[in-house]
Specification:
alpha/beta; Rossmann fold; Tumour Suppressor Smad4; 2 domains; twelve-stranded mixed sheet; six-stranded antiparallel sheet
Length: 297
């Protein structure tokens, strides 16, 4: 019987030769499950381990894949999901990093977990993404995707930025702060959480706005309908400000620029084991809801 995922691409952490043994272990297991296995061409040069796998570029217009397995941490998984946006290809995250909130399958358990997934014992998890555009003098100069957050901030400067925030054409507020995070529910457990934002259930159709060190102490995070377009105008900045997407791509901004943020028509598609539980991960990884001295469940 043909495997559920006949063509599988392996991605390791870029510029990290330590991914080699783990990728070799995954390739051997996948071959035993009847899958055709490829290695992502951009991560191949860093691997000292001779995997002898055919190479495939994830940025090809039609990668013709059924599954991508990302070995590393959440950063590697986020990068894979962004590059696959709109393709419909599922991503499975195997953790060889630190926290591993999204890449939730430990490499040590892969020999038991992966065969079960290839038998159909898995659940699918679709996550919303954001598209952000940077406009200057009525021209769009940057457009990009984010799975966690869009962040407008003071860059390397010491002074705050002044932002006017609108929901479409309706004014929301004007704020002086070190920056403003616009997060998806997925990103609510990332930078936005560290900045004092709430945790959002992954399936909520919501955008989260979290100011960073606002000048007005009454400024608080707010969740809004993700069908609305957000417009952030940079009114003033003593030093060059910046637009960052998932803390991965960063673009310089100047006074008068506008950032437009809306929900992308693309979604990230993740595969998890059947026992995957978002709230269980919160308790296990973030110690969410624990009392002092309480045993973890």
């Amino acid at each position: 019987m043909a495997p559920i995922f006949p063509r599988v691409l392996l991605i390791g952490k870029y510029r990290d030769s330590g991914s080699g043994p783990g990728l070799a272990r995954l390739a051997t297991l996948l071959h035993s499950l009847g899958a055709e296995v490829f290695l992502e061409s951009q991560c191949a040069p860093a691997l000292q381990h001779d995997l002898r796998l055919p190479l495939l570029n994830l940025d090809d217009p039609d990668p013709d894949l059924d599954l991508v397995i990302s070995l590393g941490g959440d950063g590697t998984l986020l990068s894979s999901a962004r590059r696959l946006a709109g393709s419909g290809v599922a991503v499975l995250g195997v953790n060889q990093g630190r926290l591993g909130f999204l890449a939730d399958i430990p490499l040590d358990t892969i020999d038991e977990t992966l065969p079960a997934i290839f038998r159909g014992a898995y659940r699918e998890d679709r996550r919303s993404m954001l598209v952000a555009e940077l406009w200057r003098d009525e021209l769009r100069v940057v457009s990009g995707l984010a799975l966690n957050e869009v962040f407008v901030h003071k860059g390397c400067g010491e002074s705050m930025v002044e932002l006017r925030v609108q929901l479409g054409d309706r004014p929301l507020y004007t704020e002086r702060a070190d920056g403003l995070i616009i997060a998806t529910p997925t990103g609510s457990t990332a930078y936005a959480l560290s900045a004092g934002g709430p945790i959002l259930s992954p399936g909520l159709p919501t955008l989260l706005l979290v100011p960073i060190c606002p000048h007005t102490l009454s400024a608080r995070p707010i969740a809004i309908d993700d069908r609305l377009e957000l417009r952030l105008s940079l009114l003033a900045a003593r030093h060059p400000a910046a637009l960052s997407l998932d803390s991965h791509h960063s673009y310089p901004m100047q006074a008068g620029d506008e950032v437009r943020v809306r929900r992308s028509p693309c979604e990230a598609r993740f595969i998890h084991p059947l026992d995957h539980d978002f709230y269980g991960i919160l308790r296990r990884k973030l110690h969410w809801g624990e009392l002092p001295g309480e045993e973890r469940c």
